[in-house]
Amino acid sequence: MLEAIGQFGRSLKGPSPYEMSGSFLQKRKEKVMDGFKEHKESWELTGCSIMTDAWTDRKGRGVMNLVVHSAHGVLFLDSVECSGDRKDDKYIFELVDRYIEEIGEQHVVQVVTDNASVNTTAASLLTAKRPSIFWNGCAAHCLDLMLEDIGKLGPVEETIANARQVTVFLYAHTRVLDLMRKFLNRDLVRSGVTRFATAYLNLKSLLDNKKRVSKTI
């Protein structure tokens, strides 16, 4: 599209603000809604899963995203700011239950959340009201928590800390970093703050490149 605009030249007249906020916006909305129909047809045919993702932004505001997953793909459902609300089991249950009602209980197979204790209690409330719907914890989050606990064991914690120090040293000095990239011809996998699996990926990265890293240092 941008190439076509460039070929047309400066004489191209763009849409007016009225058109952008009126007819053009309405057409785009209709196209999006048409896309929803295919998702909803899939929900009726094979069922769907409601998935939640709760997080806190840089301003400390609590946000919960809700998406629907089905054989047709993933559809964003809603994003709820819950900063001023008490995010207890009842709140989460009522929020999820509202969207189950909107989609249709007969179309929802399961609800997937992280493994926080408050979600476990909310699952009990949902099971009592809608016994046909499963409530499952996110497998990836469960594995991440397992790796976090393993990382608290003495020898493992010390090894991860040493690996982090080596990585920080390499990336904190420009000349050393240039040498490392020259010898490795790639970057190391670095530990993340919130994803504990990255600490183990960092260890594997250092182990796989042990000789080259030693040569750099």
CATH topology of the largest domain: Nucleotidyltransferase, domain 5
User: In terms of per-residue confidence, which ranges show pLDDT below 50 for 5 or more consecutive residues?
Assistant: none
Task: Note the gap between the termini.
Answer: 50 Å
CATH architectural grouping of the largest domain: 2-Layer Sandwich
Global shape: flat
Q: Work out the strand percent.
A: 15-25%
What structural class results from the helix and strand content?
Answer: alpha/beta
Rg (C-alpha, Å): 25 Å
Organism: Oryza sativa subsp. japonica (Rice)
Pfam family, one: DUF659
Domain DUF659: 15-166
Protein name: DUF659 domain-containing protein
